[in-house]
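Hi! If you just cloned this repository, the fastest way to understand the data is to look at a raw example. We've pasted two of them here, unedited. The first protein comes first, obviously.
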Amino acid sequence: MARQHAQLPVSSPRLLASAIGVAITAGSAGQMVFAAEKTESKTSGNAIALDATAITGEAQDSTSYQVEKASSPKYTAPLVDTPRSVTVIPQQVLKDTGALNMQDALRTVPGITFGAGEGGNPQGDRPFIRGFDAQGDTYLDGVRDTGSQSREIFAVENIEVSKGPNSAIGGRGAAGGSINLVSKKAHLGNSFDGGFTYGSDQTQRYTLDGNYQFSDSAAGRLNLMSHESNVAGRDKVDYDRWGIAPSLAFGLGTDTRVNLDYYHLESNDTPDSGIPYTIPTGGSAARTKSNPDKPYAGGDHDNFYGLDRDFRKGRTDTATFAIEHDLNDALTIKNTLRHGSSMQDYILTQPDDSKGNVNNGSVWRRANTRVSNTETTTNQTDLFGTFYMAGFKNSFSTGVEYTREQSEKSSYNVNTDTTPRTSAVTTNCNPGLIGAASGYNCTSLSNPNPNDPWNGAISRNYAGTDTQADTYALYVFDTLELSEQWLVNMGLRYDHFDTDYKTYNAAGTTTSKGDDTSEFVTGQFGVVYKPAENGSIYASYATSATPPGNTLGEGQEGNPLGGTPDRSGNLLSSDMEPETTKNYEIGTKWDLLNDRLSLTADIFRTEKENARVQVDTSSYENAGKTRVQGFELSASGKITDKWQVFAGYAFMDSEQVDGGPLGRANDGNDLPNTPKNSTSLWTTYQVTPKLTIGGGAFYVDDVYGSVANTTMVDSYVRYDAMAAYKLTKNVDLQLNVQNLTDETYYDKAFSTHFANQAAGRTALLSTNFHF
């Protein structure tokens, strides 16, 4: 009998969230309107506390696509004077594009692609920035957000993308850059935003964002979300999740400010198993770069190759306590204590090509499974402000960090019930074995049935791996103003990274273990010349370090802890050194049209000269080399009072320069998940005071799935459109149509076996309330 999985009680929390929203709306809406009117009547000279790194003075236009400064105090200058490529996706872009998760949001930033996960490399967000895997380089309010997950944005204010090696700011990893999610926090003033979205493919989404000021210096904020949907153009796939994010703030507008924040997200999905790559007649060994395999669904791109046994459950909890004190007008100290956990539990049926199938019209169903939980505790203390030395102004930030991360990973036993059948089933999958002859593990490429009466057995496999890491770090950043025209930006970070692991069998007996201690110093240095107050020209250099065990098993380990086993299970020896990456960049940034529109351009070269590669049959060394170089252009802000734009273009020329003695066959090949050309354009125009229309185009060039360049997904162009109409000052409607032309394209390429197909045409109609 197939195992029936108990469903998470998604409906109950959703009803709770809805009830809370109704109660807040009914009980507080009138008070909020009254309080909002009182707030509007206050003089503009009052201080406005924006968040934990509060500023005073005039608030920036919240509807603008332009952002002047990153949220982290580690960025010691405005973006126009920061000598590196930083893109901030503001709240208005998230709203206008109809983004529902982090991947939706990041499609507006060229130079970022997404890779697919399976079992060993977990499901969840796997962004590649400038060709480097950034799965472990996502941060929440400047603190590393460990653990594989699919991130929501209902409680996110904006998203900051830093490109180029970024270890000086974020710590280990960040070879291609990092992503920082800025959360919605309690603030002064009263506000209420709520909405519901109905759309194609049974989409229903409800959100609430309410902020209430309790006193002159205290406020609370509550964000709620409930979402369920199918996926356009995909059979069986569905997403079901809910979340809650309360926030309390005390001392707003005073010298001492305290923030208490909590985030909970729970999901229960039927995951997409993807579309298999074609296989040459000679089998997978016959794949070539000149004729790479591409995903093919046997004539129907709606085909789903999973089974009704498939599920993916997730849970994320994050609690943050931050206290910030102004020592004087020019000096602030802040301490952030964070504890979080991230859980994944899934069985994903992958369309596997390892049994000689696909080219003969059949697909083998292989189960990928995972049960994992990652807990992270971080304490980070920052001191930042300004001081003068020898008459020169210094804007600085310095701090210390301690982090403990613990990951537990195990799996399921999935008995495919092929033992009683012919021995051919275990070695081959062909049309003669489709259906009952293989226990429904071999299915049709053109007509798979996810409701096949699969009758295997599922049980927990308690054998697994535990990994623990401790980070001790010191860092300092400074922007030195030599004159009105010349600035020097400097950053330095020291990391001590201890990590260890053990594997154990189902009885709990340790079967292997290992540990490593890495110490490394990373830095950044940039010189900025300002020919005018609103513009800059810069040159910069930055480094990163990726130690063994960087992702704690929560991502693809290019530099794994304990070496890599050979086919006999023997661990190969390794020098266990951190991989290092360096970046050279020259660029210019300008704020034009009365500082309403930001334009940037940069040329970069990123090199990894000690990538871990296998050098003989028994050992690894940090002897490989890869390189990505290119240029980028971007524009964000208002061209006129009514016309906004958020656009960018990236050209990336990637290459494996040296794959080591056993990998030289791929030297000269493009790196996986690194398109040569990618561009995004999103723009809106306010036709009348009540009507705004907009649209976008997103292009991504061909993407290889593997460094052998033998698997590939084709380039694509996707078009989106939107229209928003204000019924009253408190109510507006918004229609988004994504993938307007119903283009069939693939947005995630795995190195072998399969690629993930993107959603087809999707229409979303939102009704939003504001008080």
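Ok, and the second one:
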Amino acid sequence: MKFTEGFWVRSERANASYASQGFYAKKTAYGMQIVAPERPVLNRADAMNISTITIDFIAYAKNNILVKAKHYEGYENGEARFELQQEKVPFEVTITEQEAVLETGDVTVRYDRTNGFYRFEADGKILTDSGLRNLGYVRYDRKPASVLPEENYLAEDYKPYMVAELSLKAGERVYGFGEQFTAFVKNGQVINMFNEDGGTASEVAYKNIPFYMTNEGYGIFVDHTTPVSFEVASEKVEYVGFSVPGEEIRYHLIYGPSPKEILSRYTDMTGKPALPPAWSFGLWLTTSFTTNYDEKTTSSFIDGMAERNIPLRVFHFDCYWMKAFHWCDFTWDDETFSDVEEMLHRYKTEKGLKICCWINPYIAQGTDFFREGLEHGYFVMRKDGKGPRQLDFWQPGMALVDFTNPAATKWYTDKLRTLLDMGVDCFKTDFGERIPVDVTYHNGADPVSMHNYYTFLYNQAVFTLLKEVKGEGEAVLFARSATAGGQQFPVHWGGDCSATYPSMAETLRGGLSFAMSGFSFWSHDISGFEQTATPDIYKRWLQFGIFSSHSRLHGSTSYRVPWLFDEEACDVARFFVNLKCRMMPYLYRMAVYSHETGIPMMRPMILEFPQEMGVKDLDMQYMLGDSILVAPIFREDSVGEFYLPEGTWTHLLSGERREGGRWYTKVYDYFSLPVFVRENTVLAMGENDQLPDYEYAENVVLHLFEIKDGAKITTEVTDVSGKTVLTANTKREGNTVSVTVDHPQYHPSVMVHGMTGVAIQTELEVNYTDKGVI
């Protein structure tokens, strides 16, 4: 939110008080505290009629400093709070007349008591700082007592805000803020943390995360569920500014120095992602949104995929598995489906499928389920107390489940439990971002802060139920909305995109920003949700979708089965789904790594190559795990444009070798795209091309790509529970490459790519070629 008119002039609507002196400074149990008046206090008279800001610098966790700045210390707004994990860490505080210094881990915060400036330092350099008029309290639209009736002596009428600004260096890029579909580098943007259902073609977002990082080695998490407003090198182009309504602002500085370390420490605090079940990495097919379908239709889709030998792992029933005007009472439409349990049993046992159902947290009136919730007070209530807050916006007279009420949460999830008992395996948790703020909650939480936080409670409730019923490691969602911490409940998908190349590109931008915000598992509607794609776009989006962590065919008013586009689309789908199944030993190990570290599977190039100058702005390609570069094609002329970082890269499908540090263009048919393997990679590939969940270590093939002299590489293969069952150690000394495996049961074969004249020492079977084909 802007409080100025240009750099020098304050807005006429803003009455601001800025911290300008560290008048008091003391050590506390967790760090240090500063009392900062709005102007220098040089004598006792200066301490009269003045505002102060109390600033706490807290050693919160390793290389994580929490800054809390408060104007009125007694102010409580009932804000919903994120569930954060704090870690007790050692720290030192030094206070002199000139400065107050807090040191913890690799980070130092140095507060200049003479002027109220402070800076964060690490490894001998300044990370960022706060200087002149950068930390303050604003009485916005203030009406002083002089313009109010006389009986309001000493009264004021205004909206309170706290604002902080942190400096940027020349060339410093800012990334993150959740799934934002605007430019990947966020410099110059105004970003408001207010979840909305805006599609992928606007500046509003389903998943706003008040966290950003820069290419200077640090991240900032603003610890507010209220709608934080960010001015990212916009109001002041040398700063990132952020403001929140109220009397306090809280933010964490998290030092890496690498982007991966920043994300790992951020997710230490906000929560690591659960490990999705291996079967969820297979292809998902849905009925689409508003299409007409019944059991005959769904069976024709499932059988059609099988007849064309296109592996399908999950079938999803979207909205109309329930009757119209009955969303969501979680009751199957008995006019469309005669024997649901028998149908689901058959799909699962005979077709080998997992079953997903669409749900949301809105309950339409006119249903028995609504009347139950109304009777027991399980809904979010009107502000005036006259019953639940109802809307006609999505369903007639719908009310919202109040997840701050434990009894309401149990009521809602118990209804879902009946679906799991029937044979459903997981849920698509749609919506959760259309939440009114003129309401009251069971726990008395501030409704404005609950607007974004509601989705956390919603997805947490459903995910917890799935863990309870299905078991640890079997729970998975397809969620649309999110806030900070929501990464604990995977998977998320990118919302309502359109069947165009620009929309495909904006979808990827959103996913990459989402990945830079702590979310590891992400998907999207292959070929676009709105409209119907051309066969060309459908096949190109298939490639992108299969090379995402999760892959789902879904649309709005038309079906997404490939034979409706053309027969070649069936061949393309089969080719890439077969490939993804064979890649699962590598992909699932990357999933386990994401679960353990919080580092995403789909990685922006800057995350994997932070020192490479050529990748800072790239948003149309990414790394899938640590070894495979993917550059989807976004052009009708089939030209792929991509940048390869330094090193030797080998095309995954053709074996073509290219040197990095430069851009390339090349025409690719529908059975290929720019997908390159990094040098010094030992890529574990499986033999099963029909399932994503199988015994990965059995008959696994280790593909050696450009192993350089002196390299030592450890490759792990897990089972479908995520447990490591095979470890291969590869090293090169001169012209000799050795491969050793520590498991007596599994005997991988080895395929060598692009290392002519190199001797391979191994007791394993060796397939030696200069141009291996995956």
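That's it. A detail worth noticing about the second one: The first helix runs from residue 259 to 270.
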